[in-house]
């Protein structure tokens, strides 16, 4: 199958799954994001550690999933008591005890904790984005966030191809991502703002045009930084893609690298000004 066709078909399936699961309800969202969390941590540990420290890798993935499950329940209509979060403490202690018996490559454990901070934490807190007062589920805000990120990516690609080759060839970070140009950065900003404006008018985002546009700009910048941050890791380990789960697109880290930075920034901004 032609590479372009394969990439297009897998991209359509990916979008359909994301939109469908986000709109289907709380349990569909939980199942989807639990899978995303586990798979992204697996890809990160495969990239950084390979077969080393498998027991600690699995335990850290379990910790992240337990944290996600606790937050998902805590933000639902029937939250568990606050003490349930304490289940993470014995898991963390046990992980550190394992390190005592496998400490010859102690510095490599930095990758374990980096994975938890970089991937585990933002995804474990993601249920807050889809929960409203009273624990009611709504995937519209999360879907709107992804629409802004996707619009930013499409705009950056199109403007980069049209203007970033000859008209404005200046590169952003050539040592990390040689193809990223300032023309693409500006183009992505324009399309992100346009997407946010449309989403605000259709009611998917709060009725506050100025704040929505500021949020979209912040998300665009954060998303670019997230993309570059993942590229830095792949370059460090000599990889083109984080995995091969999505034909023509790579792994889930390649699809959600921008979201790990952009969605928390967007949600915190709306939270601070009282719009969510």
Which labels suit this protein?
2 domains; 68% helix; globular; mainly alpha; single chain; 276 residues
- First and last CA, distance: 45 Å
Q: Strand count, sense and closure of the main sheet? A: none
Q: Unreliable runs, pLDDT <50, ≥5 residues?
A: none
- Dominant shape: globular
**SSE topology string:** HHHHHHHHH
Rg over CA atoms, rounded to whole Å, is 19 Å
Task: State the total count of DSSP E strands.
Answer: 0
Indicate the mean pLDDT.
90
The helicity comes to: 55-70%
Number of helices: 9
Q: Strand share of the residues? A: under 5%
Number of domains: 2
The SS-based structural class is mainly alpha
Verbal overview:
With 276 residues, the chain is an all-alpha fold. The chain has two domains: 26-137, no CATH class; 139-276, no CATH class. The chain has helices spanning 3-24, 26-48, 54-74, 88-100, 109-124, 140-163, 182-201, 209-236, 252-272. Helix 3 (54-74) packs antiparallel against helix 4 (88-100), helix 6 packs antiparallel against helix 7 and helix 7 packs across helix 8 (209-236). The mean pLDDT is 90.
How are the elements arranged and paired?
Elements: H1 3-24, H2 26-48, H3 54-74, H4 88-100, H5 109-124, H6 140-163, H7 182-201, H8 209-236, H9 252-272
Helix pairs in contact: 1-2, 2-3, 2-5, 3-4, 3-5, 6-7, 6-8, 6-9, 7-8, 8-9
Task: Describe what is shown at a glance.
This protein has 276 residues and is mostly helical. The chain has helices at residues 3-24, 26-48, 54-74, 88-100, 109-124, 140-163, 182-201, 209-236, 252-272. The chain folds into 2 domains: 26-137, no CATH class; 139-276, no CATH class.
């Amino acid at each position: 199958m032609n590479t372009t066709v394969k990439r297009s078909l897998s991209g359509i399936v990916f979008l359909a799954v994301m939109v469908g699961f986000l709109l289907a309800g709380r349990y569909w969202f939980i199942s989807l994001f639990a899978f995303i969390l586990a798979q992204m941590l697996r890809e990160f540990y495969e990239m950084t550690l390979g077969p080393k420290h498998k027991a600690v890798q699995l335990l850290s993935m379990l910790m992240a999933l337990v944290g996600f499950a606790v937050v998902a329940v805590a933000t639902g209509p029937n939250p568990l008591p606050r003490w349930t979060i304490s289940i993470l403490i014995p898991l963390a202690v046990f992980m550190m005890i394992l390190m005592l018996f496998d400490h010859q490559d102690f510095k490599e454990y930095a990758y374990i904790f980096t994975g938890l901070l970089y991937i585990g934490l933002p995804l474990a807190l993601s249920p807050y984005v889809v929960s409203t007062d009273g624990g009611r589920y709504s995937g519209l805000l999360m879907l709107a966030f992804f629409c802004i990120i996707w619009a930013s990516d499409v705009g950056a690609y199109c403007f980069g191809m049209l203007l970033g080759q000859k008209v404005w060839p200046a590169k952003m970070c050539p040592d990390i991502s040689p193809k990223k140009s300032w023309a693409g950065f500006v183009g992505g900003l324009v399309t992100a703002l346009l997407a946010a404006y449309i989403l605000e008018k259709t009611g998917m985002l709060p009725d506050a045009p100025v704040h929505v546009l500021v949020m979209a700009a912040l998300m665009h910048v954060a998303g670019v930084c997230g993309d570059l941050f993942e590229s830095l890791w792949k370059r460090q380990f000599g990889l083109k893609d984080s995995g091969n789960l999505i034909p023509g697109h790579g792994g889930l880290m390649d699809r959600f690298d921008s979201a790990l930075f952009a969605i928390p920034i967007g949600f915190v901004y709306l939270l601070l000004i009282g719009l969510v």
